[in-house]
Structures are given as structure tokens and as C-alpha cells.
Amino acid sequence: MMYPYMTLNDDTEITHSEMQPDGRVKVYIETPDEKDGFHNAVCWLPEYKWENVSGYSDEEMEFFRKLIRNNAHAIIDFSQDGGVLYAATS
After folding, report:
1. Could you count the other beta carbons within 10 Å of the beta carbon of residue 76?
2. Is pTM beyond 0.85 here?
3. For the segment 20-48, what is each residue's pLDDT rounded down to a tens digit?
4. Among residues 4, 30, 6, 31, which one has the least CA distance to residue 17?
5. What span, in angstroms and rounded, lies between the C-alpha atoms of 70 and 36?
6. CA dihedral 72, 25, 65, 83 (to 10 degrees)
7. How far apart are the first and last CA of the chain?
8. DSSP one-letter string for the chain
9. Measured CA distances, 85 to 4, 61, 71 (Å)
10. Sign of dihedral through CA atoms 61, 66, 69, 72?
């Protein structure tokens, strides 16, 4: 299951998985693009391993690396509590 985490002004959606049995959390980033359909990237926490990066520039990826690093603690916490929406109502 993927949980919503954040929507940016350009309609980029950032979602995350439940914490896996091995302690990892998948973070998925997707941005709609008129030409390509969608740009996307996956980051695995807590090791910050990036994969399946498609359509993003180096500058955009640097922004996402910083954003995820600055929010990793919250994403990891929410991954254990049913996502940010559940945590907000608890």
C-alpha cells in the first residue's frame, strides 16, 4: 500500500509505502508532464537508494534528494502509522 505524503505546486505527488519487514520504506515521486506523460523516481529509505529515475533533470533530482533527506524521519515514522492522514486523525 502507498500513502500520500506531499503534493508540490507543480502537481508532483510524493507517496510512501508501509515499512517493509526489513525496515525499508519506498518513496515514490511522480510529476505529470504534457510531453512524456509522467516523470518518476523511487527512493528507498533509510539507505537513500535511488532507482527508476525517469524524466527528471539533475537539478530536479538534487531538489528531490534534499527534500527526501529533510523529510526522511517523518516519512519513516508515518510508514509505521498508516500514513500522514492516519497520523493526523489519531
Report:
1. 17
2. yes
3. 999 999 999 999 999 989 999 999 999 99
4. 4
5. 28
6. -60
7. 19
8. -EEEEEE-TT--EEEEEPPPTTS-EEEEEEEEETTTEEEEEEEEETTTEEEEEES--HHHHHHHHHHHHHHHHHHHHHHTTTHHHHHHH-
9. 8, 26, 16
10. negative
